[in-house]
């Protein structure tokens, strides 16, 4: 109970600091989410349309995903220095994989009967993509977005180790000055942020699936 | 006038020869039914006619134009295509499904498209209250009617139908067959209709094409096929009629 009391005390005393860190954390995550979202979507569409490149692209995306986050950040420092831009690049590289994989799976999972009917009716390739494939793949793609957002928010905590902002700063400082309450306070906010975003995106996912009559 | 002509068309998938030197001519306004075993090349033939497949050798002409030289997108938009089940877009309402070809062809006037969709719904025997439903909320027979309405929205002179009534119960099937005949009488379309039901083929077709292993076993009026089957396969087929 003492510990919890200490945490609450910390939140009250350093309210502004935590708010600032939360704001920075959201900005950092959101930038990476938007970049990974757009790039991953485009890459996913590309490999779904050109099956020849799907193997290599998925392999590269998988490799990026399996590099431990701390070492990916470390490897980027000589190239990009320290600070927020490096963190954004690393988080984007991580986020691309779930986006590419889900976009690819969603698009290639659309029934070939439906695609063939659209083609037989005189749709152009672009019309098939925009009017048939993407809307029908949207449920799977949104699931990928959800996955990616939660992951980005939690991995963004590591970014403060290379001098980027965000709630990782509280965690890192807590570790260096042996203040467990501070580390915990930062972690708790990250967890809450992730849960909140997951819940909101879950609602969006449901709404989209209902709108598309996929469930 | 001649609507479709196939000249010495051959098509293989891998080592499997699906169409073997097939030549055929379909007149404007004719109702041609095509029957044969699974894998005899019926669907491939249909897909050649709107350029979804290309022949390995031989030529396909539609409206007198070799489809090698035709604008395939424009040709397909003028050609109605109905397939068994699954052809409707599950994420679009009945109205949006029917308006699909007009919309992708650039006709975006919503009121006009809706009016047209409702007129087509009535034409195929459905109530206009169906317009805002989704395909999953319709019965099999209703879905198939919507499929036909959608094909007609292109104001098609040529209708390609691939076992459109294959999955329906006998009663619904018969009702739709009668309506198909009435529609064709009214709209004077050229129809190529694939089926695996000999009774359906005989009932609907002005001529019936019996296919066997990518070749024409017999192509004649139902009457002649019944009276003078060309070979044992056709005889066996019509015996069950």
From TrEMBL, chain A:
Pfam family, one: BPD_transp_1
GO annotation (BP), single: transmembrane transport
Chloroplast as UniProt keyword: no
Entry keyword set: Membrane, Transmembrane, Transmembrane helix, Transport
This protein's GO CC annotations: plasma membrane
Domain ABC transmembrane type-1 positions: 22-201
Membrane-crossing segments per the record: 21-47, 67-94, 148-172, 184-204
Membrane topology: Multi-pass membrane protein
CDD domains for this protein: TM_PBP2
Compartments it resides in: Cell membrane; Membrane
Predominant subcellular localization, coarse grouping: membrane
Alphabetized InterPro entries for the sequence: ABC_transp_perm/SBD, MetI-like, MetI-like_sf
Family in the record: Belongs to the binding-protein-dependent transport system permease family.
Protein name: ABC transporter permease
């Amino acid at each position: 109970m003492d510990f919890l009391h200490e945490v609450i005390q910390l939140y009250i005393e350093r309210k502004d600091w935590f708010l600032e860190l939360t704001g920075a954390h959201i900005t950092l995550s959101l930038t990476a989410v938007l970049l990974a979202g757009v790039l991953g979507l485009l890459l996913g569409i590309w490999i779904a349309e050109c099956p020849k490149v799907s193997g290599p692209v998925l392999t590269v995306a998988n490799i990026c995903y399996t590099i431990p986050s701390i070492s990916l950040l470390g490897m980027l420092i000589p190239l990009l220095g320290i600070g927020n831009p490096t963190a954004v690049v690393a988080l984007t590289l991580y986020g691309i994989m779930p986006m590419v994989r889900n976009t690819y799976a969603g698009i290639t999972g659309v029934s070939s009967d439906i695609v063939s009917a659209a083609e037989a009716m005189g749709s152009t390739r672009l019309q098939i993509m925009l009017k048939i494939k993407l809307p029908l793949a949207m449920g799977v793609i949104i699931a990928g977005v959800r996955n990616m957002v939660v992951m980005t928010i939690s991995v963004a905590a590591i970014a403060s180790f290379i001098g980027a902002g965000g709630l990782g700063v509280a965690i890192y400082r807590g570790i260096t000055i042996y203040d467990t309450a501070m580390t915990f306070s930062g972690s708790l906010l990250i967890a809450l942020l992730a849960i909140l975003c997951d819940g909101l995106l879950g609602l969006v996912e449901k709404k989209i699936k209902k709108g598309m009559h996929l469930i | 006038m001649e609507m479709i002509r196939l000249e010495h068309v051959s098509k293989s998938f891998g080592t499997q020869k699906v169409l073997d030197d097939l030549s055929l001519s379909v007149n404007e306004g004719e109702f041609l039914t095509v029957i044969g075993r699974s894998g005899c090349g019926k669907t491939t033939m249909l897909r050649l006619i709107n350029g979804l497949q290309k022949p390995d050798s031989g030529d396909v002409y539609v409206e007198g134009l070799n489809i090698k030289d035709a604008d395939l997108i424009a040709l397909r938009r003028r050609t109605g295509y109905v397939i068994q089940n699954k052809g409707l877009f599950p994420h679009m309402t009945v109205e949006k499904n029917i308006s699909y070809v007009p919309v992708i062809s650039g006709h975006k006037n919503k009121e006009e498209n809706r009016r047209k969709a409702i007129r087509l719904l009535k034409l195929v025997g459905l109530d206009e209250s169906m317009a805002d439903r989704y395909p999953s909320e319709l019965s099999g027979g209703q879905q198939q009617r919507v499929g036909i309405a959608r094909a007609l929205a292109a104001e098609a002179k040529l209708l390609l139908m691939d076992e459109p009534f294959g999955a329906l119960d006998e009663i619904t099937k018969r009702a739709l067959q009668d309506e198909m005949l009435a529609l064709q009488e009214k709209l004077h379309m050229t129809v190529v209709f694939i089926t695996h039901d000999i009774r359906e083929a005989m009932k609907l077709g002005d001529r019936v094409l019996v296919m066997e292993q990518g070749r024409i076993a017999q192509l004649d009026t139902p009457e002649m096929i019944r009276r003078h089957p060309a070979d044992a396969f056709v005889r066996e087929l019509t015996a069950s009629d």
